[in-house]
Structures are given as C-alpha cells and as structure tokens.
Amino acid sequence: KTKKSTVRTIESLTVTQEGSMIRVTISGNGFLHKMVRIITGTLIEIGLGHMPIEAIEEILQQKVRKDAGETVPAQGLYLDEVYYK
Q: Is 76 contained in some domain?
C-alpha cells in the first residue's frame, strides 16, 4: 500500500476583525485532520504575544507538532465555503 503525502500547500491566509469576531480565512490545496485548528491556535499564541511571528517559519521547517500552538476546540469554528478546481 502506498503511503499518501501529508504535504499541503497554504495558498493564502488572512485574519480580519468583524465586530467582536475574528475571521481566519485559509485557502489551500487540501487540509489534514485538525490542521486549521492547529493553525488557528498558533495564530492566537502569536496574537497574545506568547510566541513571536517569526516562529511560524521555524515550526513549518522543523515539522515538530509540539512547537505549534494548541489545537483550538471546534466550537466557534465553521466551514464557510469549499471551492474545487
């Protein structure tokens, strides 16, 4: 059995404030289990000043899960749109 690749490409990521809500919009060629929740947790850590923004590059290069932010709970997160090419 051939092992599937776990490499995914994030094409864009934006963070915007809409009233009391924060919208994180991520576009990519696919997502792994809990990937968006992990990315969101990492962004929260950066926003709170617990992690420098430069840490993202190192986390991605080293591929060590424990170096990223916490996996945020699914409550409050929702899938808005899906596009297929």
A: no
Q: How many CA atoms lie within 13 A of 48 on its CB side?
A: 9
pTM score, whole prediction = 0.84
Beta bridge pairs of residue 10? 28
pLDDT at 51: 93
d(CA 77, CA 67): 22
Say whether 53 sits in a helix, a strand or coil.
coil
Phi, psi at residue 77, to the nearest 5°? -100, 140
Domain span holding position 54: 10-67
Span 41-64, average pLDDT: 91
The average pLDDT across 34-63 equals: 92
Position 80 in a domain: no
- For helices 35-47 and 55-62, angle between their N-to-C axes, nearest 10 degrees: 150
Mean pLDDT of 65-75: 91
